[in-house]
Amino acid sequence: VAQAFADRLIQRVRALGHPLCVGLDPQLERIPPPFRRGAMKPGDPETAEAVAEFCLAVLERVAERVAVVKPQSAFFEALGWTGVRALGDVLRAARAQGLLVILDAKRGDIGSTAEGYAAAYLAEAAPLAADALTVSPWLGFDSCEPFLEAARSTGRGLFVLARTSNPGARDLQELEASGKRLYEHVAQGLAQRAGRLAGAETGWSGLGLVAGATWPEEARRLRDLAPSNLFLVPGYGAQGASAAQAVAGFVRGSSGCLEGGVVSSSRAIVFPDTDARTWEKAVDEALERAIAELGAAVA
Amino acid sequence: VAQAFADRLIQRVRALGHPLCVGLDPQLERIPPPFRRGAMKPGDPETAEAVAEFCLAVLERVAERVAVVKPQSAFFEALGWTGVRALGDVLRAARAQGLLVILDAKRGDIGSTAEGYAAAYLAEAAPLAADALTVSPWLGFDSCEPFLEAARSTGRGLFVLARTSNPGARDLQELEASGKRLYEHVAQGLAQRAGRLAGAETGWSGLGLVAGATWPEEARRLRDLAPSNLFLVPGYGAQGASAAQAVAGFVRGSSGCLEGGVVSSSRAIVFPDTDARTWEKAVDEALERAIAELGAAVA
Question: In terms of CB atoms within 10 Å, which end of chain A has fewer, N or C?
Answer without folding.
Answer: N
